[in-house]
Amino acid sequence: MAAIIKHRLFWPAVILVVLLVTNVFFSGSFFKVEFRDGHLYGSVIDILRASAPLGLVALGMTLVIATGGIDLSVGAVVAIAGALACLRISGLDDQNSVTGVLLAVGLALLLSLALGVWNGFLVATVGIQPIIATLILMVAGRGLAQLITDGQIITINSSPYKMIGAGYWLGLPLCVIIAVGVAVVAGLIVRRSALGLLLESVGGNAEASRLAGIKSRWLILIVYVFAGLCAGIAGLMISSNVSSADGNNAGLLIELDAILAVVIGGTSLAGGRFSIAGTILGAVIIKTLDITIYTVGIPPEVTLLFKAVVVVVLCLAQAPKFREKFQRRRPSAPATQAPQQKVEVTA
Amino acid sequence: MGTALLSMSGISKQFPGVKALEGVDFRLYQGEIHALMGENGAGKSTLIKVLTGVYDIDEGEIALDGRPVRFAGPQQATEAGISTVYQEVNLCTNLSVAENIFIGREPTKFGRIQWGVMRRRATDLLQRLELDLDVTAQLSTYSLAVQQLVAIARAIDVDAKILVLDEPTSSLDAGEVAQLFRIMRQLKAQGIAIVFVSHFLDQIYEICDRMTILRNGRLVGEHLVADISQLQLVSLMIGKELALLERLEDAGKRSFDAAPAVAQAHDLGRSGAVEPFNLTIHQGEVVGLAGLLGSGRTELARLFFGADKADTGHLEIDGKPVTMHGPRAAMNHDIAYCSENRKTEGLVEELSVRENIILALQAARGWTRPLPRRRQDELVQKYIDALNINPKDPELPVRNLSGGNQQKVLLARWLITEPRLLILDEPTRGIDIGAKAEIQRLVVELSDGGMAVLFISAELEEVLRLSHRIGVLRDRRLVTQLENTDAVDLDRLTETIASGT
């Protein structure tokens, strides 16, 4: 039992359960999942679908944050990727052509990679602070997206493209399968190779890592490229889901939700130890919270405030220092709890 | 001599695994300059931190002006009239001289800082110390020595009764030391009691009245400086440690002229760090580097590892000229570097012991070729046993280990890369005597096994004990190299460091 409580995903998991149970209170059929026309339907599925793009963006953000950096430009990359894909598809003679759509998707992802290389170049080679380096693309990227869409919202009618964000495969939403697939592959690569260790080392102590012979430049470049790619895929999902590209609003403020998901998942913004599973859990919590706000029927004017309160509680629950204090203050807390506080460091 | 201004009695302080102070007495009288002596790790800094309220004590009593006191923090100690100037200048170099002197206690009127008053008072204060500085200039425009003096000015302006100077001279040249001493004498005449810590024996004998000697956290003696010779002092400071390591004494004194050279520096240098030098390290040889802090010891070692780039000269490895592009290049030539500062340049504290140990080896293999977990566990277990790393749990975060064990983890990291040249920069600083002895023994064993070692330590005793040859640095220049024969002893070495010949 103590081992479960000590696990760093314990508190986020508790919050998720609390949110889900709250939903059941207000909407009895919350957990009901129907099987209709070969697809699964239900609130839980909706949450997962909504979590897919955020989870992807947060996944890329996790590795960037692990190196002690941050990527503010992911929202702009989301918009650019969607804009370029939609522009290419709208120019097709037959918008339902699978090859045409694949080409458009490939181009959009290639551009996302290139944007990641740009961020990585600024941070790793030029040596600009990550927050400033990616701020450049965060601002300029919106402009670039609008340039691509010519300031308009591009609407398309392409069923292959629609698959990415709204399609189903084996009864499951395709976007969830893609997101989980990318997360699993990334997790395997990071933990089976030495990449994870080296990233954590660079994020934990850059100078010590340099003197241990780690060439951090390449590692840092890789994580920004990966963050760009993840944001690109998320951008395709988002634009595909609504069959249009809006350079102005697609992925707006998603970088902040992604950073939040990473923090909720137990990865420190200071860099070092990271948890991919935690980040995915964090993304699901954020989207569950969004849905909870609707089911509970919180008036629209206070939704943001409500969200803020939950986020504050979450972040405090994740902070070892706060938990330590909380445990110590409880008058009934027996002395046996003392060793637990010490072990928080291990998490 | 009347009653003591400050008396500490039976002071004990324990850290996890280490008894830093054990029943130490310390007395300080008005208007005296009192030296606190002892090797590194003897408990000097702990005693100072107790005195200045940084640490609370486990046992003992402190009385100031005859009244018992107990400081909850540095602020309280300062209010009670105890001011400290630490070895590393802890001022804000990006602020002006005046701002630095008054930081945190700026003269204000209606909540607004009175800049004019502040500048005037700063100028007056500095003039009292016969320092002619532009108080509006940014502190970084002045030399380290002047910054040190500004720190002292700041310390005495808060109506200090006791001024603690923790190795203030370690980075000063002779002229600057003279300036510091003049100010110390002036303060002494004003009745301020000064606690002075220095590794430099000649300075102690020049300026101090009395001294308290610590060894391994215990009080060994309290003497008038005039009553005790330098030789007596050194033997009191080193004490039984000398006996403990006697075996090592005989290990040295071999000739290495016939042994193949592992690394040779030819006019290697870096401007602002260390002047061009020639140095050869042979297989199986321990070359010690001695010199004061800031004399360029670390800077010299870093050039061998490519941690900094040399801008003159070149390096030969096995007789072939090479260019050191960086640490990885050095590692490819089987060179390893245990950096001076474990926390900032050595360990990744949140990673586990295992991860820290395999880090360099893994870095050399690249991220695509992970070291198999079973091999990791084998290697890590082997070195945990061989170096006696405690606790033996390889999955513990390194930050939970004591200093000595952290140092061993860092050593293990480099030993598993099987280097031919091992550079050890202050490997025994701030660690307990047991771990220190183990590390020293290890150095002897490694060199017996044919490894070349470049050994840096601020403790001259240690350098003398372990090195076959000693390079002496002074003012960022390698001034001479001494074969460590019987003719070379602590006095000779100290003299060389002081005079440069």
Automatic annotation (TrEMBL), chain A:
Transmembrane region(s): 9-27, 72-91, 97-118, 130-148, 168-190, 218-238, 250-269, 302-320
Species: Dactylosporangium siamense
Ribosomal protein listed as a keyword: no
Broad class of the protein's primary localization: membrane
Keyword list, A-Z: Cell membrane, Membrane, Transmembrane, Transmembrane helix
Protein name in the entry: Sugar ABC transporter permease
Region (Disordered): 328-347
Keyword Plastid: no
Cellular localisation: Cell membrane
Residue stretches in coiled coil: none
MF-aspect GO terms: transmembrane transporter activity
Record-level GO cellular component terms: plasma membrane
Topological relation to the membrane, as annotated: Multi-pass membrane protein
InterPro entries per UniProt: ABC_transp_permease (IPR001851)
Automatic annotation (TrEMBL), chain B:
SMART domains: AAA
Entry keywords, A to Z: ATP-binding, Cell membrane, Membrane, Nucleotide-binding, Repeat, Translocase, Transport
Chief localisation class: membrane
GO annotations of cellular component type: plasma membrane
Localisation per UniProt entry: Cell membrane
InterPro entries hit by this protein: AAA+_ATPase, ABC_carbohydrate_import_ATPase, ABC_transporter-like_ATP-bd, ABC_transporter-like_CS, P-loop_NTPase
Keyword Cell membrane applies: yes
GO molecular function: ATP binding; ATP hydrolysis activity
Membrane topology, record value: Peripheral membrane protein
Keyword Translocase on entry: yes
Domain ABC transporter: residue ranges: 6-241, 246-500
Matches recorded under PANTHER family: CARBOHYDRATE TRANSPORT ATP-BINDING PROTEIN MG119-RELATED (PTHR43790), GALACTOFURANOSE TRANSPORTER ATP-BINDING PROTEIN YTFR (PTHR43790:SF9)
Annotated protein name in UniProt: Sugar ABC transporter ATP-binding protein
Organism: Dactylosporangium siamense
